[in-house]
Amino acid sequence: MPDLVLIALRIAALAVLAGVAWPALRMAASTAFRNRLGAHPGLPHLILAAIIGYVVLVLLLAMAPLPLLVTAAAAAGVVAGLAHWRARPDFGRSRGLPPGTLAATSLAMVEDDRHLLDQARRYGPVFKIGRYGQKIVCVLGLERCNALLRRHGDDLVSGGLPFDRLIPGGFIRYMPPDRHARYRRLLAGALTPELVRSGRPMLAEEAAGALRAMAGSSTATGIDPAPHLLRYTTRSMLRLFLGLDRDDPALEEALALYPVIASANLSRRTRKRVSAALSTLTRLFAEAIGRAAGGGSPSLAASLVAARTDAADDPTLLGNLVYMIETGGRDTADLLLWVLKELADHPDRAAELGRTADPGLAQRIVLETLRREQSEYVVRRVVRPITVESYTVPAGWLLRLCVRESHRDPAIFTDPDRFDPDRFQGDPPRAGVYAPFGLAPHTCLGRSLVLAMAAEFLTALGSGCDWRVTADGPRVFGSFHWMPSRRFRLAFSSRAA
Ligand code: HEM
Question: Fewer Cβ within 10 Å of end Cβ, the chain: N or C?
């Protein structure tokens, strides 16, 4: 063959090898994917090694004899073709799989917050998607999701995040049914609405302190409210859980350790550092529970000791308390960030919050923000094949019960995209149509606490603080869910000042 043809063949083969890898490389480089990797120790190194390995292989092939290079390119082309064929929406229909595309490297779900709604509009309330190589069946409609959990509870497990392995006996969300029932009973019996009510003055004090700190550090270009919100929720929970005073040195010691054990950042810390921080936190918690046994102010620790005298000696319970504050504090801080964003986008409601004597407005704003933005999805792994509507979900697949998207059903919420806190006037909606705190048997144990922390923050915001937006941008997908832009900045000033 003439030299020019050989060179062209070589270039074409290399282009195929590069093109085949492009979607995976684009996915690996995306911020959302990298955020997600933060929760999985070891995985970023594995992926980096795979990328380097592939680049080295392509370089070696570039220097290899032409037949070898062309064969490798042809094999890569076949693999890409198969992936493309498998990604077509009617793939697996003869086996009973739902419609929808399994494109493994698709970033649509983390680049477009309406992607799942669009898929539901196209394929109906049960459809399949692919994400980061996982095969997922999405289900919309909370009545449907509840019925599914009731019928197939034994065929589904809650797949855990890696932090689960740091707790002896595991985190409550991911425990096997017997253990889950035991710890859920204990924790639900201790973290009661009455306990939360008794903590309201402390929450009000913490909220006012957080806003003072935000005003104190504000500049003309504004501040990032996120770290302040996380400090507010974590401090409040530590105080309520352990019965700590505002100035207790254990409070600051624990606060400094929380970033080290953060479930979303485990891959960025060494195992040794995480273990050391976790064992110090566990000791602090055990000591606080020990002190609570001798009496004192109401706290979760005191209620736990009243229920079980050996509470301070149970490493499963201690680990769960530590991580309930980590995960719950982060979720609540993220909720408050969305509340600020919603108020920033709806200044009339923000002004009303400052004027009104109606304590219900804060609660309605929070419920509406939970409906629109900070609703978790619920994910289960299928351990035995199940039937959803007329479709089959094979073992090993994930089931995503789409709570956030179910909250956008116009048959249930009129004009669902509109921010309208007043839709929560009157009786609270049924669990069958509104479930930001999840579905039985794993409904959130922090519900009353979340609502109390949010209400106290909004009351303090409305009564003691002026604030304005100084910078903003498009929403982003964080480690686990959608977040306001990382550029979102606010300038605060205390009204008294
Ligand atoms: C905005 C804040 C929060 C939201 C939206 C939220 C939402 C949820 C959801 C959807 C679930 C169910 C997860 C599943 O079924 O896989 C859940 C479970 C749970 N939440 Fe929350 N949560 C929040 C804050 C908190 C807080 C502050 C606490 C701390 C007390 C907490 C403690 C728990 C626990 C212990 C579970 C597991 C319950 C079980 O497995 O039985 N959450 N939460």
Answer: N
307 within 8 A of 294, measured Cβ to Cβ: no
Residue reference for tokens 């074409």: 12
CA atoms within 13 A on the CB side of 428: 12
Q: What is the distance between the alpha carbons of residues 152 and 142, in angstroms, rounded to a whole number?
A: 15
Q: Give the CA radius of gyration of the chain.
A: 25
Instruction: Walk across the sheet containing 126-131 and list its strands.
Output: 126-131, 134-139, 398-401, 378-382, 156-157
Atom of ligand 1 nearest to the CA of 449: 27
| Token pair for 280 | 């110090």
Q: What is the total count of domains within the chain?
A: 1
Residue 291 lies in a domain: yes
Written as six digits, the tokens of 152 are 């197939």
- What are 277's two structure tokens? 């921080």
Six-digit token string for 184: 């859920």
Beta pairing, strands 378-382 & 476-477 = unpaired
Q: For ligand 1, which residues put their CB under 6 angstroms from it?
A: 158, 172-173, 184, 191, 324, 328, 331-332, 335, 374, 376, 378, 436-438, 442, 444-446, 449-450
Identity at 220, one-letter amino acid code: A
Look up the pTM and report it: 0.94
Q: Partners of 483 in the beta sheet?
A: 476
Instruction: Supply the residue whose CA is at minimum distance from atom 35 of ligand 1.
Output: 445
> Residue 212 is part of a domain; what is its CATH number?
1.10.630.10
Show Cβ contacts of residue 384 under 8 Å, excluding neighbours closer than 6 positions: 155, 395
Reported as a pLDDT band with limits 50, 70 and 90, residue 375 is: confident
Decide if 15 is inside a domain. Answer: no
pLDDT in tens, 72-122: 999 999 999 999 999 999 999 999 999 999 988 888 888 899 999 999 999
Euclidean distance between CA atoms 419 and 413, whole angstroms: 11
